[in-house]
Design goal:
By secondary structure, this protein is mainly α. The protein contains 12 helices and 4 strands. The radius of gyration is 26 Å and the shape is elongated.
């Protein structure tokens, strides 16, 4: 996961049609708060607004055509889902827990709450899950402030994900065992088998390029240039690539160990020689 920087202001459709739709949702809630809180009444949302082509296109550019969560590239056969970071129609504090109504309905058309996500991250894993550090602090309607909440999921648009989630080879882990990264990795399935296999393939290419880049071969310059692009935001799994290239190369590590071992043996040999000479005196 990498930091996503969206354009400002929001796409026009969200400011105009989205603004009117938000006002209508809030007015409907005010007419029957108990009905919406209990779930006997539910909101109807207009996917033509938050999923408008203008919204998708701007998100696609801001996210470098990658899933906001797992960094997999969107392919020609999959365009991604417009994901609501705070679920619009109902949310869960824990997986398989009760669905808490009415959800963050007033944020359904808010630019800061929208991302493009792959179907696996959005539908199979995250879904309506939105855990908070303190469940009682949840904003239950548009009168409450979401800023009082402490989400346990990392927000790629508001947080610095790479400070919280690191990589050991293709495996993501929580830096300093922080709770938000642990919950995010689990909730979004960032260690799922298919994703790990994709990262492993990418890692194999990184290894091969690094070997060439650190060699004296004529191709070394091109390999270094390729590695430089693979750590940039537009590249797939760039956060893993950066973590990999921050590690000392295997070649250098082995050479350093051999050198240290050689010096250690030499020192030991010198000490033995001195002991031998002392014994002959």
């Amino acid at each position: 996961m990498i930091r996503i920087r969206k354009t400002s202001p929001a796409p026009e459709v969200l400011l105009t049609r989205g603004g009117r739709a938000r006002a209508d949702l809030c007015a409907r809630y005010e007419e029957d708060p108990k009905g919406y809180d209990s779930g006997t009444k539910v909101f109807v949302f207009n996917a033509g607004i938050y999923g408008h082509p203008d919204v998708r296109n701007v998100l696609m550019e801001a996210q470098h055509a990658k899933c906001a969560f797992c960094e997999s590239k969107f392919r020609h056969i999959a365009y991604g889902d417009v994901e609501h970071f705070r679920p619009k129609a109902g949310c869960r504090q824990v997986e398989n827990g009760p669905l808490l109504r009415p959800g963050y309905y007033w944020l359904a058309y808010e630019w800061e709450n929208l991302y493009l996500s792959c179907a696996l991250c959005n539908q199979r894993f995250k879904g309506s899950l939105f855990p908070l550090r303190v469940a009682k602090s949840r904003a239950k309607n548009h009168r409450r402030r979401v800023r009082a909440e402490e989400p346990l999921l990392i927000d790629p648009g508001g947080d610095e994900p790479e400070r919280l989630i690191g990589f050991r080879r293709e495996v993501p882990y929580a830096v300093a065992n922080n709770a938000r990264a642990r919950v995010t990795i689990d909730a979004l399935g960032l260690q799922r088998t298919e994703l790990m296999e994709q990262r492993r393939e990418r890692l194999t290419l990184l290894w091969a390029l690094r070997v060439v880049a650190e060699s004296d071969k004529p191709e070394a310059v091109a390999a270094r240039e390729k590695l430089a692009t693979m750590v940039q935001g537009p590249s797939e799994y760039s956060s893993m690539a950066k973590a990999f290239l921050r590690e000392p190369s295997r070649r250098r590590t082995v050479a350093a160990r051999k050198k240290a071992g050689h010096l250690g043996h030499s020192g030991s040999g010198e000490r033995k020689a001195q002991q031998g000479r002392s014994g002959r005196r």
